[in-house]
Inverse folding.
């Protein structure tokens, strides 16, 4: 949520391996937390210095080890994208075969993604497909945000679609919403969950019990959606650069 200041890096031995972790002090943090993703281990602590981040890491090595093993499996499951016509990509939860054809503009049907040949020649298949997905993602997020913001009685300043590699969404202290364009590859209800999650932060900044009550009131099945995202996020990798 908030802006943090990196205070340094250190290493700790977990399950026989030396793992580097980053320490970040955050003005928004009221409790310490550990973030583990495919790229790094990060411990976020309040700026008041009341928590020793290195001791906090040592107290949670078993949990970190489980998370780290999950991301090792994640790397092994990552799809190998070649960006050749005839390859399939997920789009809103369904596999679509993409083609390059002599058409005026890109388009998406029930089972195909069609890229315009003239645009591909000036750029590349990868860049044009990403641009199309970004465009579709913005349309989806704008619609879903407007629907749920009104129902939840919250207001936001702006909406951005970003190339976030380790986050699906964020809500800044200035009430700006950001979403990962790769969510256009997930079923629509998963993108909806991420939207509601970030909108709930406009009412409750941290992941308190009150925060999750807000989410549950809007989406009673939010746990199933969150579990799907954790289990299938590997399927939303676009290129090897995402790893």
């Amino acid at each position: 949520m908030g802006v943090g200041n990196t205070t340094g890096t250190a290493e700790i031995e977990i399950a026989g391996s030396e793992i580097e972790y980053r320490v970040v002090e955050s003005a928004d943090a009221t409790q310490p937390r550990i973030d583990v993703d495919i790229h790094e281990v990060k411990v976020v602590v309040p700026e008041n210095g009341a928590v020793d981040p290195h001791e906090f890491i040592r107290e949670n090595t078993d949990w970190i080890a489980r998370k780290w093993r999950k991301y090792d499996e994640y790397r092994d499951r990552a799809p190998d994208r070649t960006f050749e016509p005839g390859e399939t990509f997920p789009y809103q939860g369904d596999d679509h075969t993409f083609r390059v054809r002599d058409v005026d503009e890109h388009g998406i049907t029930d089972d195909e993604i069609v890229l315009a040949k003239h645009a591909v020649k000036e750029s590349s298949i990868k860049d044009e497909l990403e641009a199309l997905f970004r465009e579709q993602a913005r349309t989806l997020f704008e619609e879903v945000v407007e629907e749920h913001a009104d129902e939840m009685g919250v207001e936001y300043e702006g909406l951005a679609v970003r190339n976030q590699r380790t986050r699906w969404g964020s809500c800044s202290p200035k009430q700006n919403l950001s979403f990962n364009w790769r969510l256009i590859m997930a079923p629509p209800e998963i993108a909806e969950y991420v939207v509601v999650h970030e909108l709930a932060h406009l009412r409750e900044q941290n992941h308190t019990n009150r925060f999750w009550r807000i989410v549950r009131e809007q989406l009673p099945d939010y746990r199933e959606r969150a579990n799907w995202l954790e289990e299938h996020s590997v399927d939303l990798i676009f290129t090897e650069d995402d790893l």
About this structure: The chain has two domains: 4-77, 131-242. The chain has a mean pLDDT of 90.
